[in-house]
Amino acid sequence: MAENTTLGQYLYDCLKAEGITEIFGVPGDYNFSLLDTLEDYDGIEFINGRNELNAGYAADAYARVKGMSALITTFGVGEMSACNAIAGAYSENVPLIHIVGSPKTMMQQEKELAHHTLMDGDFDVFRKVYEHITGYTAILTPENAAREIPAAIKIAKEKKKPVYLVVAIDLVEKPLLSHSKTSENMTKTNVDALQSAVKHIKGMLEHVNKAVLLVDVKTLRYNLQRPVLQLAERLNVPVSSLMQGKSGFDESHPQYIGVYGGAFGSKDVTETVEEADLIIAVGAVWSDVNTSKGTAKLNPLKMVEIQPDTLKVGEASYMNVRAEEILNALQDIGYRQNESVGNISFPYDTMVEDPSAPLKATSYYPRIQQMLKENDIVVTETGTFSYGMSQVRLPKGATYIAQGGWQSIGYATPAAFGACIADRNRRVLLFTGDGSIQLTAQEISSMLENGCKPIVFILNNNGYTIEKFLNVKVDIEKQKYNEIPEWNYTKLAEAFGQEAFTARVETNGELDEAITNAQDMNADKLCLIELVVKDQMDAPDYLKKIRQYLEEQEKLK
């Protein structure tokens, strides 16, 4: 660190050291000094979003691809606009550094009634809001920046949570007055606990004929895919993922059997998981989504639950056992399943060929599965698409991005933009609905402006189909609130002053042709395909089973 390093320069030095090469955000008069410093900084580019909420969503997806991200907003109005995105990152275990530019130090000290405030002289109120949706908050000064910035980044890395840093506009260009840093010590594994756990698990395996591996979201966030894959191959057991952990295991691998969905998913997968003598669950979050509204039947006494730094074996808990170390230790435990996984069929392996038939879930999901390529980034919106895409088998190296837990409508379009920026060498495919894209369509403009070339699928099924499925109390005809305006989606690029390949398709044959054209053109331009499905209640089987379950529950009331 140079002797005259400013607070702003040091902040960007720390972010650059974490591999961050772009920072998302929106300009505002309290963050000008942050942006001016960044403009002159070598190695990090500012990516301007159309609004702070979308910029937050983009930063979220960027972190899922690259490991960490950063977002700059202005005080009050900007950070409150981004609040939903940051809460989503907290819910979804995404490490994101949120940087806020605040009013001048003197204004705050004198409690002036400044714009972008609540007009009560309280300049700490928004940080207090963020205390509840971030892993750490700090007010940066030249005296504490060398300590607070590394501390915040360390927490973001270890806890996989967003953190919040606020700095007054007049302090960004001030030189650091202290250069003392925090230590980078990571939590170490308790060797005795590790050895006891391995002995416990070895004893359980003596009575096991059929075991299974369950992979979930923290496998992705903590980069545990490789040791999980090695363990699966050593034990020769089938592997399933939970809904929120899709792509946490190579879905092209012969031991992968599909997403476990309780009463709603594949019957074969459900039987394999629930009838196992032992379940090894890695990074699981037992949410209502992952437990399929409580229909999952998983016996905790037959479970080894591996979390990033804790472990449960049946009823016993072992603290301070790092996931990677227990995963590695289990490879030498001496168990290997005799039965092979066998030939597994996936829901969308069979293609519906009739080219003149109207589009339905049974026909367009197999086509989507067939078009996917190795190393694709697949971004899926909350709603009808999220349930269908969960059953699509991904190719090797694919990254799947979806808000499985937070499920904020409109997330996927700006997330796809963030994914494009995070890795310009990988193909990005966005799957969103007509209702969802109407919340955040502005980021297609950002994609075009930044030379991004994703393939965008918009499912036009006449409104909020997902909500129609989930509300079983009222007839669909009475749900006027689930209707939306009819947009001309293929004209969006033109409205944003740019060119794109577009197609509006209603039949299987038209979709086949559009996919072929998009595959040929997406290296040169953004491609947008509107899937027009006339039956507003057409949906994947997973969603139909959920509705049936909800109807049965309603009758019991």
Structure description:
- There is one protein chain.
- The chain contains 21 helices and 19 strands.
- It is of the alpha/beta class and 557 residues long.
- The strands form three sheets. A seven-stranded mixed sheet has the order 9-8-7-10-11-12-13, with helices on both faces. A six-stranded parallel sheet has the order 2-1-3-4-6-5, with helices on both faces.
- Helix 4 links the parallel strand 3 and strand 4.
- 49% of the residues are buried.
Q: How is the main sheet built?
A: 7 strands, mixed
Runs in which pLDDT lies below 50 for 5 or more consecutive residues are: none
Total E-strand runs:
19
Gross morphology: globular
What is the average per-residue confidence, as pLDDT, rounded to a whole number?
95
Write the layout of secondary structure elements.
Layout lengths: L6 H11 L4 E4 L6 H8 L5 E4 L3 H15 L2 E6 L2 H15 L4 E7 L2 H5 L15 H6 L6 E4 L4 H15 L3 E6 L22 H15 L5 E5 L1 H5 L3 H11 L3 E3 L14 E4 L7 H8 L3 E5 L20 E4 L3 E4 L2 E4 L3 H8 L30 H11 L5 E4 L3 H6 L9 E3 L10 H11 L5 E6 H7 L1 H8 L5 E6 L4 H6 L21 H4 L5 E5 L2 H14 L5 E6 L8 H16 L1
